[in-house]
Design goal:
- This protein has one domain.
- The chain is 73% helix and 3% strand.
- The chain is built from eight helices and two strands, in the order H-H-E-E-H-H-H-H-H-H.
- It has a two-stranded antiparallel ribbon with strand order 1-2.
- Helix 4 runs parallel beside helix 7 and helix 5 packs antiparallel against helix 7.
Length: 155
């Protein structure tokens, strides 16, 4: 494995990106923060697909430092879980404000690089990833169709 300090310095962009998506804005007088991810997710279906694209961009960036099969599976699982639940109307919008998948993925990557956690193939996790991927795509398509039908019904 390469020098962890060098690898962590290469995560500087990923750290800022995760912050913008998950916790860039604070509500005054509270410890509650949120980012662009839940705001983008307010657009039914399309917002969730765009947010998922932004999340996968971060995952690709994190994986450039090298990774195990288990780490890759956990990163992708976090994105899919966030996207699947995030695509459920109302519940998903609330979920997006609290789950912060990007910061979770950054933390998992740092644990992998600094503490040698999340080693192994992650075979069991990959089955969950596949099932959640299918569910996520179906839910996003369903919400997009529902939203388009609703908009057309307005006219």
């Amino acid at each position: 494995m390469a020098d962890p300090k060098r690898e962590l310095s290469s995560l500087k962009w990923a750290r800022r990106y995760a912050r913008v998506l998950d916790s860039n804005f604070k509500i005054p007088g509270t410890n509650f923060s949120f980012g662009l991810d839940p705001i983008i997710g307010l657009i039914p279906g399309l917002g969730d697909a765009v947010a998922m694209g932004f999340q996968f961009l971060l995952v690709v960036s994190l994986l450039r430092n090298g990774s195990s099969g288990e780490l890759r599976a956990k990163l992708i699982l976090n994105v899919l879980l966030d996207s699947a639940i995030g695509s459920i109307p109302i519940i998903g919008q609330i979920w997006d404000f609290f789950y912060k998948a990007n910061e979770r993925n950054l933390r998992l990557t740092e644990e992998y690089l600094l503490e040698d956690k999340h080693q192994g193939s992650g075979k069991g996790i990959w089955l969950a990833v596949l099932m959640l991927f299918i569910i996520t795509i179906v839910m996003i398509v369903y919400v997009i169709v529902w939203f388009v039908t609703w908009v057309i019904g307005l006219f």
